[in-house]
Amino acid sequence: MSELPPDLPRLRTVVTYLRNELGRAEQALTSAEEREAQAARRLPPPEPPAWLIERSIGAGRPAVRVHVGGCWDAGKRSAALGVEQARRALAEGVPACPQCRPDTALGVLE
Fold this sequence. Notes:
single chain, alpha+beta, 2 domains, 3-stranded antiparallel β-sheet, 3 helices
């Protein structure tokens, strides 16, 4: 540590400065702890559904394709399906996505 000044006014100045710096350091520590606690409380993203059905635009919104859940090619108009619903849709002629191949994953080949 460096030499401290011998006179009272300069010693008071050093103590005042160090108290202020300690306060700033404690505030930064508190903020960092709060950020870390918030990050720990965040929930992980939900699991994607196992199967998706993509619908078209317009009246009636007919089914366009069946996808495996999490398929990168599934559009915004996709909804979750159960395994039996996905099999039924494929059996009824709804095309399988050529990217994720749900028909192969379900064992339903055309």
